[in-house]
UniProtKB/TrEMBL annotation:
The keyword Nucleotide-binding applies. It comes from Anaerovorax odorimutans. One of its GO terms (molecular function) is ATP binding. This is ATP-binding cassette domain-containing protein. Pfam families: ABC_tran. Residues 3-228 form the ABC transporter domain. PANTHER family: AMINO ACID ABC TRANSPORTER, ATP-BINDING PROTEIN-RELATED, SPERMIDINE/PUTRESCINE IMPORT ATP-BINDING PROTEIN POTA. Gene3D superfamilies: P-loop containing nucleotide triphosphate hydrolases. Keywords: ATP-binding, Nucleotide-binding, Transport.
Length: 234
């Protein structure tokens, strides 16, 4: 799904925390959103998801200013599962959408295989580790073939092996199902491994956007360079 922003702002109690003149997230991309604490990354993601309202300006989804709720899904840093088994959690959005049982089984089976969850399908959600919980949350988010997957620091508390499984899944689902992926991350190595495009935000402004490998290796903007080099003082 193609996204574009025009004069998009969000202010809290008169203080503008996001102010994007123009910007876009290309259809079919895996776009990393990077930037220091307080840059406005989560604010932007919440606006895209429709969880928050812009103070001014608009977001266009495939050229339309109306949010296509059914096509968008979100994964947060701290996921919440329903108090049921792994497989029931993943099947839940599909049951809500009235999918046939065999289609549900096919999709849940595929997602469990890809995320190494097959052996714990019957396990209760509250008995899972943090990494397992996040993988189930991702599987559930992907269950209904979303056109846009938004992730807010999904691996912040996750070990490297599970992080690698999650990153592999993001790439697979993007390549094979053409889901557009937008990933907020403080892990620049993760952005390098996972993203093909990148937006750098600072102080609510879009400082640089473009090819992820190019921005992460040789940014054009001095602020971006300092951030990536770990030299940026906020
Ligand atoms: N509900 C709110 N009320 C008031 N201020 C808010 C609210 N939500 C966010 N802010 C402010 O907006 C600014 C941007 O916050 P945001 O969470 O979008 O930044 P971020 O780039 O995601 O930061 P981080 O990397 O720390 O998660 C911050 O200064 C924050 O304090």
């Amino acid at each position: 799904m193609e996204l574009s922003f025009e004069h998009l702002t969000r202010a809290y109690e008169g203080k503008t925390v996001l102010d994007l003149e123009h910007g876009s997230i290309k259809s079919g991309s895996r776009t990393g959103i990077i930037g220091p604490n307080g840059a406005g990354k989560s604010t932007l993601l919440n606006l895209i998801a429709g969880l928050d309202q812009a103070t001014s300006g608009k977001i266009y989804y495939n050229g339309e200013a109306r949010i296509p709720g059914e096509a968008i899904t979100l994964v947060f840093q701290t996921p919440y599962l329903i108090s049921a088994t792994v497989e029931k959690n993943i099947a839940y959005p599909l049951k809500l959408r009235g999918w046939a049982e065999e289609k549900i089984e096919e999709r849940v089976g595929f997602l469990c295989e890809e995320l190494n969850l097959t052996g714990m399908r019957k396990k209760k959600a509250w008995k899972l580790s943090g990494g397992e919980t996040q993988k189930v949350a991702l599987a559930r988010a992907l269950s209904f073939h979303p056109r846009l997957l938004l992730l807010d620091e999904p691996t912040a508390n996750i070990d490297p092996a599970t992080t690698a499984e999650i990153e592999k899944m993001l790439i697979k689902i993007n390549e094979e199902e053409k889901t557009t992926v937008v990933l907020i991350t403080h892990n620049l190595a993760q952005a390098r491994r996972t993203c093909d495009r990148c937006l750098f935000l600072k102080g609510g402004k879009l400082i640089e956007e473009g090819n992820a490998q190019q921005i992460l290796a040789a940014p054009k903007n001095e602020l971006t360079r300092k951030f990536i080099a770990g030299e940026l003082l906020i």
